[in-house]
Automatic annotation (TrEMBL):
It comes from Geodermatophilus sabuli. This is NitT/TauT family transport system ATP-binding protein. Residues 27-257 form the ABC transporter domain. It comes from the Bacteria. InterPro entries: AAA+_ATPase (IPR003593), ABC_transporter-like_ATP-bd (IPR003439), ABC_transporter-like_CS (IPR017871), ABC_transporter_ATP-bind (IPR050166), P-loop_NTPase (IPR027417).
Length: 286
């Protein structure tokens, strides 16, 4: 991942630090606007991530999901808005305050380094003490069930195995937050289903707050504690939905199907409305 060198800036208005006795959100973004040059990519998004929460960001292609994730990672500056970390106003340099485990759509493993070496590079850059490297590599590759590929070249692995390694790499830095940008969208549906189940299983032993970007309603409902649906770009929040279905979830569960149908109805209505009337005033769903 490349940084653009501009982190959350002084242009972000910082809120007061009043905490009202309730555990504050881990991350709290309010009215965040992000621009690429003169073009607005994210247009006034409010978003919270609770401690330990798995949040899905669901939105159409090009709506600004990755851009928003880059701000959460401290890799891009917000043009305006307010941001808090654990209840405290976040200073300009968010990346110095959060250890981020990032999982991309493509695995981004270095082909000329073994699986273990790829994970080592991430741990080294995150400042993990050297005497912990070996144990962490074994632990996380084991958790992701790819321990046998420790000394393999990434190109000898299947797409699903590479994504398992890339999740292990994200977890091995002992992240404060995991950010996943459509990590399974390049996989066939059978492998993607297996990976979702794996991730769901991992949540039983690791409760690192996670923001998971996806186009897939099924995927969002299968994985997330809460689903935030975004509009066509520039991204605005259309709806939020808490998902309290027991885990592991079943796609065929009637309640799952009911939720899916309701999200499909919301998404079709909102996304088609914007499509059907380009240039028309955009509106928020109530
Ligand atoms: N570096 C950049 N410079 C200028 N415009 C950009 C840049 N990166 C993204 N954009 C634009 O910002 C908008 C949002 O892009 P972004 O990559 O965040 O969307 P996305 O929701 O992640 O899309 P996808 O689902 O296809 O990955 C798009 O219109 C895109 O063309
Ligand atoms: Mg993207």
């Amino acid at each position: 991942m490349t940084t653009n060198g501009s982190l959350l800036s002084g242009e972000v208005n910082l809120m007061s630090n009043a905490v009202d006795g309730v555990t504050p959100p881990f991350l709290d973004l309010r009215d965040i606007v992000i621009k690429h040059g003169d073009r607005t990519a994210v247009d006034g998004v409010d978003l919270t991530v609770a401690p330990g929460e798995f949040l899905a960001l669901l939105g159409p292609s090009g709506c600004g999901k990755s851009t928003l994730l880059h701000v959460l990672a401290g890799l891009r500056r917000a043009h305006s808005g307010e941001l808090r970390l654990n209840g405290s106003p976040a200073a300009a340099d968010l990346s110095g305050k959060l250890r981020v485990g990032y999982v991309f759509q493509d695995h981004r493993l270095l082909p000329w380094r073994t699986v273990a070496q790829n994970i080592t590079i991430a741990m080294k850059s995150a400042g993990v003490p050297k005497d912990e490297w070996d144990a962490r590599i074994d632990r996380y590759l084991g958790m992701l069930r790819v321990g046998e590929y420790r000394d393999s070249w990434p190109m000898r692995l299947s797409g699903g195995q590479r994504q398992r390694v890339s999740i292990a790499r994200a977890l091995a830095v002992d992240p404060d937050v995991v950010l996943m940008d459509e990590p399974f969208s390049g996989l066939d549906e059978v492998t993607a289903r297996a990976m979702r189940l794996e991730l769901s299983r991992l949540r039983e032993v690791s409760s690192v707050p996670t923001v998971f970007v996806t186009h897939s309603i099924k995927e969002a409902l299968f994985l997330a504690d809460r689903v935030v649906t975004l509009s066509h770009g520039p991204a605005r929040v259309l709806k939020e939905l808490s998902v309290s279905l027991p885990r592991p979830r079943q796609y065929e569960d009637p309640e799952f199907a009911r939720l899916e149908a309701s999200v499909v109805a919301d998404v079709l209505k909102e996304w088609e409305l914007t499509d059907a009337a380009p240039g028309a005033p955009e509106r928020r769903a109530s």
